[in-house]
Amino acid sequence: MSSEELRTSFSDFVVSSSTRKKGQTNSSGDSSSEGDLQVTCFTEDLHDVTLHFQIVRFSKQIYVWVGCNTAKFGHLYAAATTRPDNRVSVTSVLGGTSDNTGSGIARRLVLKTGLNIVLACNIPKDSPMLEAAAERKLVEKLKGLGYTRPIAGEANTSIAQK
C-alpha cells in the first residue's frame, strides 16, 4: 500500500473529531456511561517518513496509536502513576519489552498529562531521532487539545506577565 493510499484510507478511518456527551449514542447505538470520548487522527510527514497518529481520550486515560509508514499496530504499552511516591510504571501488554521505543514515550506522556496512557507504537527501535520527532508532534497535539497539565512555572509566568 502506497503512502498516499494509506493517507486516504486513514482519513476515512476517522470516527469522529467531536466530543460525545453523556447520554448520546455512538454509531453502533451504544450509550456512553463513562463520560466524554474524543477521537483525533492526524498524519505528519517528516523527511522521508510518514507518521500516523490516533488519540482517543477517555475520562481518565488516553489511548494513543503511532504508526510509522504503515497502519501496523505495533507493540502495546500501558503506563500509570503508582503509589505511594507517584512514580510512573510501564508494562508491555502486547509484544516488545519494557526497553522498547514505546515504553519511554508512554512514561513521559503520563508525566505530561497526569492520566493513564495506553500506547500502541511501531516506530523502529533503532531510530531515536524519529522517536523524538514523533513524541514532539504528539505532545504538541495533546497541548493543542488541552490534555496536558500546566507546568507550575508556566502558570506563574503567564500571571506575572499580565
Automatic annotation (TrEMBL):
Highest taxon in the source lineage: Eukaryota
Biased segments, Polar residues type: 24-35
Pfam families documented for this protein: PAC4 (PF16093)
Region described as Disordered: spans on this chain: 15-35
GO BP annotations listed: proteasome assembly
Protein name as catalogued: Proteasome assembly chaperone 4
